[in-house]
Write a structure and sequence with these properties.
9 strands; 14 helices; 10% strand; single chain
C-alpha cells in the first residue's frame, strides 16, 4: 500500500537517457506485485507453465530486466526481510481481504463473468516464497545484485542510496522518502506505453522525486514528513486518521506540535499510537553489509530457469540474449572513446 502522498509531492518527468549508467536500488516486491497484478489472462487467472506453476512474475521480470540493462541502467534488486510486528497485523488484514476477493472470484467464475473474474483476481494477488526465490535466481543469473533486507526493502534501498552506492530508489510508493533516500524514481519498471480508455496509447516516462526539493516545496523537515505520513496512513497504521488527507496533514504538522496533534487526532477517533508508528520508521532494521557486484549474465542458468523449468519460448529467450549482447558490445565500443 505505502504512504499516499501523490497530491502534495512535486515530481519531475525524466527522459530515459538521463538514467544511463545510474545504479538504481529497486523495491523488488513492489515490482513483482505489479507483474502479478497486470500479467494475467482475460479471465483474471495468472499465467502458468504446463505443470500449473505460476509464471506471471517471470514473464514480467525477464523482458523488463533486459530493457533496463539495454538502457544502460544498473539495477540492484532489494527484497523484503522479516516484517515489523505492526506490519504483521496489516498483513493479516490484507490476507482476509484477499480471501474474500478470492471467494467473489470463484462466484464470478461459476457465472462465467470474465470482467468480474479479472477484477477480483487482482484483489487477491499473492507473492509466494517460491516466486521470490525464482525471481532472485533469475536476477542472479543476469549477473545483477540481489540484496536481502533485514526487514523493509525500501528502508534498505534508502540506506544504499544515502551511502551513495546507488543514485535512487525505484518504487511506485513514497515510503523511501520517509526513510530518507535522496531520490525516488517512479515508473521505472512499468510498461513504456499505457493504453487509454479510447484505445490509443501514451508513452510512460520515468518520474523523479528529490527529497530535498520536496521538503523545500512543502516547507517542512524530514521529521515533519514522517509525522505527516503517519497521519495520512502507512503500512503500520492503514488509513491513518479518518478525515485527514495529505493537505490537512501538512497544515497540522506545520502549525502544531506532536503533543497537540496527538490530542486532536484522539478526538477524531485515531486508534493508533502516533509515536509508536513513527518509531517503527526511525528504528527500521537495515544492514550496511551488502554487495553491489555486477557480473556477466549466465545464458545457461537463464535457459534452465525459463526454458527447461517453465517452458518459455526458446525464440523469446534467445532474442533476449541478443539484446543483451548488443548492449554489451555497444558499451564496449563506447568505452574505447572514453579516456577518463
Amino acid at each position: 500500500m505505502g504512504v499516499k502522498l501523490t497530491e502534495i509531492i512535486p515530481r519531475k518527468e525524466l527522459q530515459w537517457d538521463e538514467l544511463k549508467a545510474k545504479t538504481i536500488a529497486i523495491d523488488t516486491p513492489n515490482v513483482l506485485y505489479q507483474f502479478l497484478s497486470s500479467i494475467r489472462k482475460p479471465d483474471g487467472t495468472l499465467l502458468t507453465d504446463s505443470k500449473g506453476n505460476v509464471t506471471s512474475h517471470l514473464v514480467g521480470l525477464f523482458p523488463r530486466t533486459i530493457r533496463l540493462m539495454e538502457l544502460g541502467i544498473k539495477p540492484v534488486f532489494v527484497f523484503d526481510g522479516k516484517p515489523p510486528l505492526l506490519k504483521k497485523q496489516e498483513i493479516e488484514r490484507r490476507r482476509g481481504l484477499k480471501e474474500k476477493a478470492n471467494e467473489k472470484f470463484e462466484i464470478a467464475k461459476e457465472e462465467g463473468n470474465e470482467e468480474e473474474m479479472l477484477k477480483y483476481s487482482r484483489q487477491s494477488v499473492k507473492l509466494t516464497k517460491d516466486m521470490i526465490k525464482e525471481a532472485q535466481e533469475l536476477i542472479s543469473a543476469f549477473g545483477l545484485p540481489v540484496i536481502q533486507a533485514p526487514s523493509e526493502a525500501e528502508a534498505q534501498a534508502s540506506l544504499i542510496c544515502r551511502n551513495a552506492d546507488a543514485w535512487a530508489v525505484a518504487s511506485q510508493d513514497y515510503d523511501a522518502l520517509v526513510y530518507g533516500t535522496p531520490k525516488v524514481i517512479q515508473n521505472l519498471t512499468l510498461a513504456e506505453k499505457r493504453k487509454l480508455p479510447n484505445g490509443s496509447y501514451v508513452k510512460v516516462y520515468p518520474v523523479m522525486i528529490e527529497l530535498k526539493e520536496a521538503l523545500a516545496s512543502l516547507n517542512i523537515n524530514q521529521e515533519q514528513l514522517l509525522l505527516l505520513s503517519v497521519l495520512v496512513g502507512t503500512d503500520f497504521n492503514p488509513g491513518g486518521v479518518k478525515g485527514i488527507g495529505p493537505k490537512k496533514a501538512l497544515k497540522l504538522v506545520m502549525e502544531k506540535s506532536i503533543p497537540e496533534i496527538e490530542k486532536e487526532i484522539e478526538k477524531m477517533g485515531a486508534d493508533f499510537d502516533l509515536n509508536e508508528i513513527m518509531d517503527v520508521f526511525r528504528q527500521m532494521p537495515v544492514s550496511s553489509d551488502y554487495n553491489l557486484e555486477f557480473n556477466n549474465f549466465d545464458e545457461e542458468r537463464i535457459r534452465k530457469i525459463l526454458i527447461d523449468k517453465h517452458q518459455f519460448s526458446v525464440e523469446r529467450v534467445e532474442s533476449g540474449f541478443e539484446q543483451l549482447k548488443k548492449q554489451k558490445e555497444e558499451k564496449k565500443q563506447t568505452s574505447l572513446f572514453n579516456f577518463k
